[in-house]
Amino acid sequence: MTDRNEILRYLGFRGKPADERTLQAIESCLAELEQAVTPRSMHRVFPVTFSGGAVAIGGFAVESADLAKHLSGCGEAALFAATLGARADFLLERAAKADMSRAVVMQACAAALTESVCDEFQQEIAEEAAKRGLYLRPRYSPGYGDFPIRYQRDFLKILECRKIGLSMTENCMLVPTKSVTAVIGLTKEKTSCHIAKCMECRSADCPFRKE
């Protein structure tokens, strides 16, 4: 179930009521997206080791103090990728050509739907982990903090993401655009952060950042 409050946050309605026209546009765009897209995901779990400000997930080494801090206490981590598929991009492009105000709403709905889909796929990982007495840390994606976006290339190669139709541009942007790659830590520690929406990061402009 896509959270309408998240859509409103993307649209800039932080704690402010939206007008009826906007609410109707949200429902219309969301219904169109949900009917059209076929979300897919992949993940693999690897051991985690630390060395200074670097972290290695299987044979995948990352120079990122922020990611190392985020995974502190985790013995394993999942490399995760998910996408709404090419159909979402088609709808976004079509809306941009026909009606820019609707295109803005469509973008917000697609972003929130992507997060919702990731949450659903992540729940499958959580259920697998629970059988081994492990809990999940929130998703941490390339581009957050000092975790360079270029590492998405490694994600796609390790996970063989072409199997779900996911690729990237020379600038390391994901294609289709409504896609996510992330590291998900697995830990024996059960704390409230494992069910929180956000991880620790320095993204001051994030729409989910706490006030």
TrEMBL record:
AdoMet activation domain residues: 78-204
Highest taxon of source: Bacteria
Name the UniProt record assigns to this protein: Vitamin B12 dependent methionine synthase activation subunit
Native organism: Caproiciproducens galactitolivorans
